[in-house]
TrEMBL record:
Keyword flag Lipid metabolism: no
Family: Belongs to the iron/ascorbate-dependent oxidoreductase family.
Highest taxon of the lineage: Eukaryota
Protein name (database record): 2-oxoglutarate-dependent dioxygenase DAO
Domain Fe2OG dioxygenase: 150-254
Keywords for the protein's UniProt record, in alphabetical order: Iron, Metal-binding, Oxidoreductase
Pfam families reported in the protein's UniProt record: 2OG-FeII_Oxy, DIOX_N
Length: 306
């Protein structure tokens, strides 16, 4: 059941001084684990060009889309499945790598103009994601605010094949993101994204707002913050018989080294919640257990700590 009256906050990135802005991002991250940002640095023209590129790439024949193979498990093309029958997605791992972008473009026979758009978009989104991550870190008064600079990023371009008979059905099952932070360019014309309000367990509609981007925090943010930041549970519901397009860009986490919890977050009143784990280890745990709705974190929680 969707919550009545609750609204995901929208934060204007140019309205407040840095300290107040950082505090608002932190409050939204702790309370909701998701929020929208307006007056961001991504040119609206680039967002429009990227959506057109995405729509064109999905028109490729199936045999072409199947070339988009995994760079890491689960990073490539996914056709509609029994679990998510209306959902189709293409993926690019390591978006800041020119070689990875070239490979993705070659796989899908992207034009030179489309390649240029993908490169510009990936760079702009990566910059925004890391700026938001830095602000969250700064809001806690921490000194090391750039530890995530070498963390890999990835994006998924998503198409929801919604029709009259699918209204009311799930486009994507309830899940949390595994990484630290997600920047989502959702469909400005077709809604369906819902976030769980952890205070009530009800779902809140994350309705489209023109010229904004949605931000989700994931499992890695919860581990890093020792439970302070919320890994928002979310899903997509078919609201109307229209194709829905979204572009999700993920700032992941350290693939091989453990996520480091700042010492400031651990004391007698706040014992360490989670056992050491890398982002790569977390991904493997989620895949092996098929627990993708945040429940995998319970498997790495220290005994006696809730």
């Amino acid at each position: 059941m969707a919550g009545l009256g609750a609204v995901i906050p929208t934060i204007d990135l140019k309205e407040f001084p840095d300290e107040i802005l950082n505090q608002k991002l932190r409050e939204a991250g702790e309370r909701w684990g998701c929020f929208r940002v307006s007056n961001h640095v991504i040119p609206l023209s680039l967002m429009s060009e990227m959506k057109k590129t995405v729509m064109d790439l999905f028109e490729r024949p199936q045999e072409v889309k199947l070339r988009n193979t995994d760079a890491i498990p689960g990073s490539g093309y996914l056709a509609p499945s029994v679990t998510n029958p209306y959902y189709e997605t293409l993926g690019l791992y390591d978006t800041t790598s020119p070689q990875a972008v070239d490979t993705f473009c070659d796989q899908l026979d992207a034009s030179s103009d489309q390649r240029e758009i993908l490169v510009k978009y990936a760079a702009a989104i990566d910059k925004l994601a890391k700026d938001l991550a830095r602000r969250l870190v700064e809001s806690y008064g921490l000194v090391d605010t750039n530890f995530f600079e070498r963390w890999p990023s990835t994006f998924r371009i998503n198409k929801y094949h919604f029709e009259t008979e699918t209204v009311g059905k799930l486009g994507v099952q309830l899940h949390t993101d595994s990484g630290f932070l997600t920047v989502l360019q959702d469909d400005e014309n077709v809604g369906g994204l819902e976030a769980m309000d952890t205070s009530s367990g009800s779902f809140v509609h994350v309705s489209p707002v023109p010229n904004t981007l949605a931000i989700n925090l994931g499992d890695t943010a919860t581990i890093w913050s020792n439970g302070r930041l919320c890994n928002v549970k979310h899903r997509v519901i078919c609201k109307e018989a229209k194709t829905r397009i979204s572009i999700a860009s993920f700032l992941l986490g350290p693939m091989e080294t453990d996520v480091e919890v700042p010492s400031k977050f651990v004391d007698a009143q706040h014992p360490r919640l989670y056992k050491p784990i890398s982002y790569g280890g977390l991904r493997k745990l989620r895949d092996a257990t098929k627990l993708r709705d945040g429940e995998a974190l319970k498997l790495i929680t220290h005994e006696g700590v809730e």
